[in-house]
Specification:
Elements: H1 2-36, H2 40-44, E1 46-48, E2 54-56
Antiparallel strand pairs: 1-2
Length: about 60
């Protein structure tokens, strides 16, 4: 019975580690994206007007 608890504890610790890694990588991804200035809209010359409709600049 003790081996089941040890295995369950290791599994739970592994899941916490994986969740922490996912959260950290997501935070890094968003910070890099913000540092670059957003997404592809700025690169393609597409912006949104006040009503939220896309308009092509150029």
């Amino acid at each position: 019975m003790l081996i089941i608890f040890v295995m369950a504890e290791a599994f739970i610790a592994h899941m916490y580690a994986m969740a922490g890694t996912f959260a950290a990588s997501t935070a890094i991804w968003f910070s890099i994206r913000a540092a670059r200035g957003g997404g592809r809209r700025e690169e393609e010359g597409i912006s949104r007007d006040v009503k939220g409709e896309e308009k092509i600049e150029g």
